[in-house]
Amino acid sequence: MTLAHRPDGVHVRAPGKINVYLGVGPRHDDGYHALATVFQAVSLYEDVYAYPSEGFSVEIVGDVNVADVPTDDRNLAMRAAKLLARTAGVDDGVHLRIRKGVPVAGGMGGGSADAAATLVACDALWGTELGPHRLHELAARLGADVPFALHGGTAVGTGRGDQLTPALARGRFDWVLAMSEQGLSTPTVYGRLDEMRAHGEGLADDAAPSLEVPVAMLHALRVGDAHELAPVMMNDLEPAAIADRADLALALSDGVRFGALTGIVSGSGPTLAFLCAGPGAARTVQEELRATGRDALHVHGPVAGARIIL
Ligand code: ATP
Description:
Elements: E1 10-27, E2 33-53, E3 56-62, H1 76-88, E4 93-100, H2 110-126, H3 131-142, H4 146-151, E5 154-158, E6 163-166, E7 173-179, H5 186-198, H6 215-223, H7 226-229, E8 234-235, H8 238-242, H9 246-257, E9 262-265, E10 272-276, H10 279-291, E11 295-301, E12 307-309
Parallel strand pairs: 1-8, 3-4
Antiparallel strand pairs: 1-2, 1-12, 2-4, 2-5, 5-6, 7-10, 7-11, 9-10
Bound molecules: adenosine-5'-triphosphate.
């Protein structure tokens, strides 16, 4: 390990994610649900700049609404920096400048991307050279979605979503994301799912089948066929996420009417992800959704995980 040369600042970019498949099992005693999920990292990014500092501080800027993002120890990036410093025995601090491109509380793992980017940035800034395995361990301690933001690409997540197996995915998938101004809290959506299940509302009593990622989905990803992927996409959280949000149910049917192959709630929502046959179809869906007054973006996946930008 060489600590002789310390950079003046490090810039790391990490992607937001879509859950192409999200099967949710019963709630465990620790409050977490068993998951079987397929993540895909998409071309909507968080940029984290880490600068040498005596203390720890976070500054948030960005095109999305960043008003609700904390800048104290509740911020996942701040927690990531302090965890790495503690683990590696670093006495230095860091100033983190986070440029958010992923909607806040949007179900796309923006905070998790910040945490992953911060681990990579501080590891480089401080010269701690922990290596991918240890960084993964720290990521899993910070949150279930953080390891995936480190790795990127397309991956199957089990356990809490943090036990990752890379999935082969050929080519590129075109997505249109429909954003919402009003975010959704992940714990609230899971809580509502538990209530709905307790009342047997519209959900299978036996949740076990959705804890297996369908073979047809892995095949569709492997051959890079959006037409094959669309019918097997699924999100167990969707009924809970759209329960009080008639606007989301309407937008889901609008997107398909405008030519998307299918649309699902991304993670715990409220961002909607529409899979399109190609870039042309995606541009049409994006324009038509915008014409209805929605904020829509055309992105693609899979893309790489947290990476240093030179
Ligand atoms: P996930 O899908 O991983 O559950 P999300 O994408 O729905 O999360 P985030 O934007 O990651 O939501 O964060 C949700 C909440 O976490 C925010 O409302 C905010 O209060 C808090 N938070 C903590 N750190 C961050 C961060 N770095 N960026 C955004 N939100 C953060």
